[in-house]
């Protein structure tokens, strides 16, 4: 009965979405405020029914109701409760239900928090959002129904994919989906603005918090997914340029460009055409990522079971929304009035420079990811595009962008002084030079590019500090005055500084882990010792133990440094009888921001076992940098200026249509 309730609730949500997609837009068109205002209660009702459907599927998993085919395929009665819960979205059907749940949450939030929006813009945006929801409701009901029953209910389930039986499944997909779906709000606002003909600085102020929230969630989702793969897959890597990883990276890059472009549009009423296009592209890339994962065109650790029907359906959704949005954009964009002008050397110019390199980097990832698929579809020829291509194309585009990052906040709006900004950054440049010289001295050779990359990371981090120091006039005013100035700064200023500082931290972790790590591959017998970067690892013994739904073989290692014991490591291999699969459970020892990483191979008949041992210097800075970036985003999101709506001048101009012929 519970499964049927969930199914019917989803059908009702589809009906509500279709009504919401027509009635409010029609109300705006004919000037009927009652019809236009229907978008809000419809968005709430849609959320309630989707939440009911999701709760019903969750109840089936928690109760181990194996008469539901989805539960039978992806659960087991012996699984811990946390994994029964996360199993809800550890499969294609359930993850799509989570997708539409988050979509309905965002719609309800726009209805609740968007009361400062112009009524027409809000109604049109919620109408567009409803059409997106309706398409995915229909997709789930037609090709991915999670509530299908089994005629003769089995006594036990097939278990969840062993790789997904991890706490990472509780964090990574929800955060990533919050980012993916969050960009749908920017898309809906862009389409609504093009329909209504109201594109100005006020629009940028309205949309920026939603873009920022989506960017924060996607940053955290990608970082968590990277760390999950790092410790779960046993390969010792944190990024593999897997096509599905790239599918999440592309909308993140486009969203980063959109954030910076929206700032220019809000401040100078400029870059309207470009900002609207980025809003469309960010969500379009999210849809493309969905297609890659669900269509079966990729074989990846991230992808779900393949079904050609699903792929065709999602492709149709992709063509309808992306094609329709770009067609509307092509019709309306030439009519957009030009905004404020600015000099190339200005903060606006720096943000345009930022956008240029970000979008070019996104394009290289797009080509490298989709070109092999297109080539195979057209010619049948299979090629592989891997890390060498992406490192050779993506890296050189990011370097000039990072060099420019500290300059942007130090330049004035409209017209800036590059020489003055460079003078303010002399201290940052000096620290970077000292860092480069220190690395060269310590290593006495080694990779040539790595010390300069470390210097660049120090330059970015120190540049963020210099920006704050300049704003509070540190060392030029009494410290009491500087404190008062700091207290008076908008939170978005601190948010920008933290986000840029986090970029430098992440880069430092990437460079050190990639260039100065150590790896040992060996076959070890009990009581043998292996030496890695100042650490002695002694293999003590092999031990077996029984888990809730698996059998585990554990190798115990004692770690010593300078003859003193600093800890133990227990890597393992788990065998899941229900699935007939096994997983490698790496063991990690954290020392500062560095880690010792041990991953087991297969045991041998003589009691020995193959093992991979890594020393990863400063590897945790990669994810710590992402956390600092996200914290910066949260600070900016908490800025009062993003919660009070558009500034008064922009509100006045918002009453006039900006869709006028360009001069």
Offer a few descriptive terms.
about 675 residues, alpha+beta, Four Helix Bundle (Hemerythrin (Met), subunit A), six-stranded antiparallel beta sheet, about 60% helix
What would your notes on this structure say?
The protein is of the alpha+beta class and 663 residues long. Among the domains are: 160 residues, Four Helix Bundle (Hemerythrin (Met), subunit A), CATH 1.20.120; 113 residues, no CATH class; 99 residues. 62% of the residues lie in helices and 11% in strands. It contains 21 helices and 10 strands. Strands 2, 3, 4, 5, 6 and 7 form a 6-stranded antiparallel sheet that branches. Strand 2 and strand 3 form a beta hairpin. The longest helix is centred in the middle third of the chain and has 33 residues. The C terminus is likely disordered.
Describe the secondary structure blueprint for this structure:
Layout: H1 2-30, H2 33-37, H3 39-62, H4 69-74, H5 81-86, H6 92-113, H7 119-143, H8 168-196, H9 201-232, H10 243-268, H11 272-294, H12 308-332, H13 347-379, H14 387-404, H15 418-424, H16 426-443, H17 449-472, H18 479-488, H19 491-516, E1 518-524, E2 529-532, E3 535-546, E4 551-561, E5 564-569, E6 572-576, E7 581-585, E8 587-591, E9 594-603, E10 609-616, H20 620-637, H21 648-654
Antiparallel strand pairs: 1-10, 2-3, 3-4, 4-5, 4-6, 6-7, 8-9, 9-10
Helix pairs in contact: 1-3, 1-7, 3-6, 6-7, 6-8, 7-8, 7-12, 8-9, 8-10, 8-11, 9-10, 9-20, 10-11, 10-13, 11-12, 13-14, 16-17, 17-19, 19-20
């Amino acid at each position: 009965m519970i499964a049927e309730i969930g199914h019917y609730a989803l059908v009702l949500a589809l009906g509500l979405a279709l009504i919401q997609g027509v009635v409010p837009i029609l109300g705006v068109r004919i000037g009927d405020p009652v019809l236009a205002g229907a978008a809000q209660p419809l968005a709430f009702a849609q959320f309630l029914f989707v939440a009911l459907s999701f709760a019903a599927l969750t109840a089936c998993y928690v109760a181990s109701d194996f008469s539901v085919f989805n539960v039978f395929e992806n659960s087991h009665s012996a699984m811990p409760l946390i994994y029964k819960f996360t199993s809800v979205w550890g499969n294609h059907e359930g993850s799509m239900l989570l997708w539409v749940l988050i979509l309905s949450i965002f719609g309800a939030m726009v209805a609740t928090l968007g009361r400062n929006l112009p009524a027409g813009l809000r109604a049109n945006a919620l109408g567009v959002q409803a059409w997106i929801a309706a398409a995915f409701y229909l997709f789930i009901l037609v090709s991915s129904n999670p509530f299908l029953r089994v005629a003769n209910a089995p006594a036990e389930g097939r278990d969840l994919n062993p790789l997904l039986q991890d706490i990472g499944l509780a964090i990574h997909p929800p955060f990533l989906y919050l980012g993916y779906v969050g960009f749908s709000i920017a898309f809906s606002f862009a389409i609504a603005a093009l329909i209504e003909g109201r594109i100005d600085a006020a629009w940028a102020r309205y949309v920026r918090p939603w873009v920022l929230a989506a960017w924060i969630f996607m940053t955290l989702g990608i970082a968590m997914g990277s760390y999950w793969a790092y410790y779960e897959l046993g390969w010792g890597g944190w990024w593999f340029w897997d096509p599905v990883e790239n599918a999440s990276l592309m909308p993140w890059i486009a969203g980063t460009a959109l954030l910076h472009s929206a700032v220019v549009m809000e401040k100078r009423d400029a870059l309207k055409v470009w900002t609207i296009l980025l809003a469309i592209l960010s969500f379009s890339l999210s849809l493309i990522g969905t297609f890659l994962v669900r269509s079966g065109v990729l074989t990846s650790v991230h992808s779900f079971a393949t079904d050609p029907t699903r792929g065709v359906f999602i492709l149709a959704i992709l063509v309808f929304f992306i094609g329709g949005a770009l067609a509307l954009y092509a019709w309306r964009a030439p009519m957009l009035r030009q905004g404020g002008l600015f000099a190339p050397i200005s903060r606006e110019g720096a943000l345009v420079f930022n956008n240029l390199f970000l979008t070019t980097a996104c394009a290289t990832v797009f080509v490298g990811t989709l070109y092999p698929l297109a080539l195979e579809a057209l010619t049948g020829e299979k090629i592989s595009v891997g890390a060498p291509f992406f490192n050779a194309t993506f890296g050189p585009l990011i370097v000039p962008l990072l060099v420019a990052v500290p300059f942007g906040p130090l330049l004035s709006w409209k017209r800036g002084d590059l020489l003055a900004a460079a003078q303010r950054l002399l201290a940052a440049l000096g620290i970077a030079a000292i860092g480069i010289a220190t690395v060269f001295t310590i290593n006495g050779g080694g990779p040539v590019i790595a010390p300069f990359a470390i210097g660049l990371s120090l330059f970015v981090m120190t540049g963020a500090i210099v920006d704050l120091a300049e704003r509070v006039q540190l060392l030029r005013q009494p410290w009491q005055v500087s404190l008062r100035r700091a207290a008076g700064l908008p939170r978005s200023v601190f948010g920008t500084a933290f986000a840029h500082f986090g970029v430098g931290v992440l880069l430092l972790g990437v460079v050190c882990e990639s260039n100065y790590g150590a790896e040992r591959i060996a076959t070890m017998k009990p009581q043998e010792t292996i030496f890695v970067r100042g650490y002695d690892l002694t293999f003590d013994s092999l031990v077996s133990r029984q888990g809730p739904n698996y059998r585990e073989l554990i190798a115990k290692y004692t770690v010593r440094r300078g003859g003193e014991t600093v800890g133990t490591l227990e890597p393992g291999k788990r065998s899941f009888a229900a699935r007939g699969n096994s997983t490698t459970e790496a063991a990690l020892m954290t020392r500062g921001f560095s880690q010792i990483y041990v991953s087991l191979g297969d045991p041998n008949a003589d009691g020995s076992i193959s093992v991979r041992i890594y020393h990863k210097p400063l590897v945790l800075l990669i994810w710590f940098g992402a956390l600092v970036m996200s914290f910066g985003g949260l600070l900016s999101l908490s800025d009062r200026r993003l919660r009070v709506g558009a500034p008064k001048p922009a509100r006045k101009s918002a009453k006039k249509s900006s869709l006028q012929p360009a001069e």
